[in-house]
Amino acid sequence: MGRTIQILSVLLLTWAYAQAQISSNTNSITETTETADSTETTETTEYGPINMVVDQLSNMAVNISDQTSTQLQANIERTLANILDDLEALTANAMAEMSIAIDDTNQVLLGNPKCNAAWNLQDFTLNVTDELRGCTEQLSNMIATYRAEGQQALAKVQSLVQQMAQLPIVCQSQQMGVALAPMGISFDNSNTCFLRGIAVINQGLAEAMHNASMLLVRMRRLAQDEMARSQQCSDALVAQVTEYLRVQRANCS
Fold first, then answer.
1. Does the pLDDT of residue 137 top 80, yes or no?
2. Nearest C-alpha neighbor of 252 from the set 115, 117, 123, 78
3. pLDDT for 176-209, tens place per residue?
4. Contact (Cβ atoms closer than 8 angstroms) between residue 162 and residue 179
5. I need a labelling partner for 223 at 20 to 30 A (CA). Which of 19, 31, 121, 130 fits?
6. 209: which residues sit within 8 A by CB, 6+ positions away?
């Protein structure tokens, strides 16, 4: 993120320097109409060097910001995938360990129906699965919350990148004052509008990326803590179930 801000700062300085150096070279067409009483002069500015510099800097800034947005999306998705993989592994390992004891007990009880006439393999397995789900419920809820917050953070960054891409057009529009008023931007002309606009957007992008980074750090830490709690709950459940089934088999021998 620091690299992005540094590059955008250099772009702004480059643009300011270019504006000072070539502003006097902007091409213009002057039309003069003479009448008996006065001379009317109309000046129209063409697409000149400054416009080209603005477009080039805008494209460079958008490309850098878009790459940052892509990296953020990849980090969010990778973090989610890692948490989900850990959750699936925890559940699969617990069920695999209990399944051995469940199958052994089922064979014993089916061979001796009088030992436990109320035994039902399907019902028992469903009950165990529900209890195991309870061990990971908070972790599952945390994943859902993180996914939603991650999407919001990514949408904020992508929105700022889109604003940056549209800034040259907005600054040349007659409605630019209305469009940029919520951003607190004032300007003398379209070039000043671009300079101030990209500075404001860049600041917003830096804040959005910082918040997204803090979200990643927070969720990774919370995921580790919650995974440890889920593992502890799962281990206790496995021990409880296997001991119960051991007693059932012992009573039937």
1. yes
2. 115
3. 555 555 555 555 556 677 778 878 888 888 899 8
4. no
5. 130
6. 1, 4, 68, 72, 157
| DSSP letter string, 129-175 | HHHHHHHTHHHHHHHHHHHHHHHHHHHHHHHHHHHHHHHHHHHHSTT
Q: Which has the closest alpha carbon to 208: 162, 167, 250, 169?
A: 162
How many whole angstroms separate alpha carbon 2 and alpha carbon 12? 15
Residue 143, beta-bridge partner list: none
70-97 pLDDT tens trace: 888 899 999 999 999 999 999 999 999 9
CA distances from 27 to 14, 57, 60, 99 (A): 21, 20, 24, 81
Residue 13: how many CB atoms within 10 A of its CB? 10
When pLDDT is cut at 50, 70 and 90, the band that residue 17 belongs to is: very low
Distances in Å between the Cα of 192 and the Cα atoms of 9, 20, 122, 197, 252 are: 16, 12, 72, 8, 88
How much is the pLDDT for 51? 61
How many residues in the chain? 253
